[in-house]
Here is the input.
Amino acid sequence: MNKKFIITAFALTLIAFSCSKKKGSDLKQDNPELIPSIQDKIMSEEISTKPEGSDVGESGALKTVHFEYDRYTIIESAKSELQENAKYLKDHPGINVQIEGHCDERGSVEYNLALGEKRAESVKTYLVSMGIDSSRLSIVSYGEEKPFDMEHSESAWSQNRRAAFVILAK
Here is the structure.
């Protein structure tokens, strides 16, 4: 199953390179090398994912955090949730987690994969700043591929712009 995911993700990335790019965003200006880093991670056998993802409730006490449209900065309401997550991780030092970056359906596949990675990375950076060892945290971007809410409305999109957690080891 993991190899199918890697092949599918790589194929989506290749297709995305042939699609038009979203204009007017600051994402590519921040880090023009972001897309190659996604390719490297997709091709890496080190990515450990659960095919059902985090939204099946396996993350237990770890809370999903949400983002504003077209942004990857941590919003105020997410900071308190991440502080609770950091406390949980400090209280459970044997737990490693994967942080999943998700997006809503707007934007190209390429753009959303990059934005999802930036969201997951910003959550990881915040947790590390709270004292969590970075070796316990891995990231993956699903872009728009695993929506939490399948509707096509602002309410659904706001639920899909998220970083979620999967516990990998106890």
Summary: Residues 2-169 form a domain with the 60s Ribosomal Protein L30; Chain: A; fold (CATH 3.30.1330.60). The CA atoms of residues 21 and 108 lie 7 Å apart. The longest strand covers residues 162-169.
